[in-house]
């Protein structure tokens, strides 16, 4: 099997192979991700820091807390293997403790966005069937009023049983669990790498939200690849300090902070929500070296009138959406001491897929990076299903040890996303160049069909962002009886601008083929995006089509 060393492409199988060195994975089939993370040898001392209170947990504190919570869950609350446990919370010191405790029992962790409506959360509860919920008192009142689930409060308060209807559902607090000595022998079934570990719900940017079933093997593979990426896998180096701004309920935050980086002995400084002043204070106070974030935060840092004091920070890690050349160059000019690294992944691939691991790799503007270790890829023509070679655009298919088992209770969706050889159809329109770099062109399902021509919204968005009076933009398909769909732009003007609709359309029209021209413009104060920075086009499509009927 001849594989081109430059691109990683094998002509005989039409498959791209990762150019990165393979990462060895544990061979013991009776290994859960919690044991794998907490038993790793390292030189770290402080595991978790709450940026708002300064509270710290050492690695020995973390191990003991996980053991206490797991014991309480099993011996007192009857949580068993395969039971689903819901974690509804903003970023918190408790998030990794609860996550690791639940998974150590072979129970299944499902998380949800605290910003979701009560109806959206109720739908997830009905689908996943949890036996217990960890949440805060305010979220219990605001988001779970119609649920009858038993609740463990994520707050530093004494547990007091009352006659109040809300408190009748509260069985204890996580602090009480952490203070309770583990039972000498509590019920714990054998957990294997092929057992289900998490049930995360996909973002639903192009359809109905679905439960993604990931195994302990998937998560262990993800941890190994993350540690390898940052050269932290042997645990002998100087521990790093990471600022956690990204949501832990999302695969990005769960992968990096609630499991992955704890295995390296690194310190995780947790921000409950993003606020630029608090972030800067945490960077300075804890001498942070890494700042994982989503593109909107990076753009906010770039748009500051003066460079922010970033102290010891060496690297920012951007994921969720590709960064433009203008953003990368602007950030480098403003913060020359900080490297930008990018990554690509999906909930269905446990956050893994491709990455740039050095500043030099990131200079290949627009790329998501080289394929992750232990990864194979195909670029497949969406119409003919033919596998394509270098520099040809088609749907990206991925295969690796981190690819999900399937969608929860949804065989039809699983069959349309995973084939018999466990290739994951990402739904992303991509190409891989002659040097093995992956470029994400657009979401396949978001292509605009104008008179049969395909128009990629991301191409027009990148063009709009080069306009000196535009700070952000999103392009959507607008339905039309004559042409099928045409591109419509939602534009965020920069402060003081009075840019007109015609000026926007002329600016784009002068630089693209006629079928790609924007034919409708609306101005908004902010482009709606999900926690990982992806544009919520379905929300804008709904807004545009409802407005046109008025």
Automatic annotation (TrEMBL):
Single GO BP term: phenylpropanoid metabolic process
A UniProt-annotated Pfam family: AMP-binding_C
Keyword Nucleotide-binding carried by entry: yes
Lineage: Eukaryota, Viridiplantae, Streptophyta, Embryophyta, Tracheophyta
Gene Ontology molecular function: 4-coumarate-CoA ligase activity; ATP binding; trans-cinnamate-CoA ligase activity
GO cellular component, one term: peroxisome
EC number: 6.2.1.12
InterPro entries: AMP-bd_C (IPR025110), AMP-bd_C_sf (IPR045851), AMP-binding_CS (IPR020845), AMP-dep_synth/lig_dom (IPR000873), ANL_N_sf (IPR042099)
Organism field: Iris pallida (Sweet iris)
Region (Disordered): 1-25
Chemical reaction(s) catalysed: (E)-4-coumarate + ATP + CoA = (E)-4-coumaroyl-CoA + AMP + diphosphate
Residue ranges of every copy of the AMP-binding enzyme C-terminal domain listed in the record: 459-534
Keyword terms, alphabetized: ATP-binding, Ligase, Nucleotide-binding
Domain AMP-dependent synthetase/ligase: 40-408
The family this protein is said to belong to: Belongs to the ATP-dependent AMP-binding enzyme family.
Protein name: 4-coumarate--CoA ligase
